[in-house]
């Protein structure tokens, strides 16, 4: 068989990929059930894990939902924020470089 040579840009060869934690922040108004749904829908967690993370946010102020390459993390933040606002909740979702 033949192999196809792959020519990467210099940038791709020398620039390390950047990873970001996606965090949920606590607030006094977003319902607990809604946060569980967010974790199930956008972070692919089962009900049990989603409930654990929601309670960690509730008690400790924030928790990591996942770690992703920069563009994926930014998309999660945008999707969660849009979904929360559509439902009238102030839920805050932010990203932070690892
Ligand atoms: N503190 C909220 C309440 O008591 C629940 C909550 C959990 C809100 C996690 C936001 O990221 C959050 N209803």
Automatic annotation (TrEMBL):
Keywords: Hydrolase, Protease. Pfam families: ClpS. InterPro entries: ClpS (IPR022935), ClpS_core (IPR003769), Ribosomal_bL12_C/ClpS-like (IPR014719). GO terms for molecular function: peptidase activity. It comes from the Bacteria. Coiled coil: none annotated. Transmembrane segments: none annotated. One of its GO terms (biological process) is proteolysis. Residues 16-93 form the Adaptor protein ClpS core domain. Gene3D superfamilies: 3.30.1390.10. Involved in the modulation of the specificity of the ClpAP-mediated ATP-dependent protein degradation. Belongs to the ClpS family. PANTHER family: ATP-DEPENDENT CLP PROTEASE ADAPTER PROTEIN CLPS, ATP-DEPENDENT CLP PROTEASE ADAPTER PROTEIN CLPS1, CHLOROPLASTIC. Binds to the N-terminal domain of the chaperone ClpA. This is ATP-dependent Clp protease adapter protein ClpS. It comes from Tepidiphilus baoligensis. The lineage of its organism: Bacteria, Pseudomonadati, Pseudomonadota, Hydrogenophilia, Hydrogenophilales. The gene is clpS.
